[in-house]
Amino acid sequence: TYLQNQDKRIHYNLVETDRNDVTRQVLSGNVDLGLLVRNVADAKTFLVNAEARRLSVHSIGRSGVYAAVGPYSPFYNQKKITFEEAENCAQIVLNMGAQATQNLYFDNVSNHSNTDKIIFVNSIVACERFLIQSDLLLYVAKWAEGCFQDPRIQVIPVEYKDGQTPGEDINELLWIKRAGEPLNFTEYQFLQLLYRRFGKEEELNELLP
């Protein structure tokens, strides 16, 4: 989108932050669009009713559970791993700094994580560094594949021991905007590229007035 508008006086600012802050920034008018991931455990509670009424929320894609690993991981170059295997591996968790969020995380993943071996970090840069320099594992969604700067990081699907997968509805990528505000041309350009990456450009066109 930036390359498409180099000759125009438009300011772009991409900020990496936690999900609650994304919502707050959009509602306050500080930013125009927000991207966040909602998971099945908090699908009903991630927005309070007041926020839901003031936001326009749209789904871009859904994903099952995947694991990002680096070259020191015992799972490197594997086509898939099981939750049982992942349980024995130390893990990184991104953007889970708040104590309440940490507690929610432990409640939701207690069956698939060794809570004695979890490291909380607040940036994707730190995640990449840990993945490249250690045998740590990071749970991600499938759209994380190809998004890491270091090409040595691999993203592989995680399934149950019996070969069953948890389904593609575990994680959902959303974009949010203040309710009642139409997309301007630059916002549409950005979302068009995003939807195109997911092969869903026609769905974006259906949202236009």
Question: What does this molecule look like?
Answer:
The chain has 209 residues and is of the alpha/beta class. The protein has helices at residues 19-28, 49-54, 83-87, 99-109, 124-133, 185-197, 201-207; strands at residues 34-39, 55-63, 66-69, 81-82, 91-94, 118-121, 137-140, 154-159, 171-178. The strands form two sheets. It has a six-stranded mixed β-sheet with strand order 4-8-3-7-5-6. Helix 4 (99-109) links the parallel strand 5 and strand 6. Helix 6 runs antiparallel to helix 7 (201-207). The radius of gyration is 18 Å and the shape is globular. The chain starts with 18 loop residues before the first helix and ends with a helix. The relative contact order is 0.23.
List keywords for this structure.
209 residues; 9 strands
What is the count of β-strands?
Answer: 9
Order of helices and strands: HEHEEEHEHEHEEEHH
Poorly predicted sequence stretches spanning 5 or more consecutive residues: 99-111
Which oligomeric state applies? single chain
Determine the strand fraction and express it as a percent band.
15-25%
Q: Which term fits the overall shape?
A: globular
In short:
The chain has 209 residues and is α/β, with parallel strands linked by helices.
Produce the secondary structure layout.
Layout: H1 19-28, E1 34-39, H2 49-54, E2 55-63, E3 66-69, E4 81-82, H3 83-87, E5 91-94, H4 99-109, E6 118-121, H5 124-133, E7 137-140, E8 154-159, E9 171-178, H6 185-197, H7 201-207
Parallel strand pairs: 4-8, 5-6, 5-7
Antiparallel strand pairs: 1-9, 2-9, 3-7, 3-8
Helix pairs in contact: 6-7
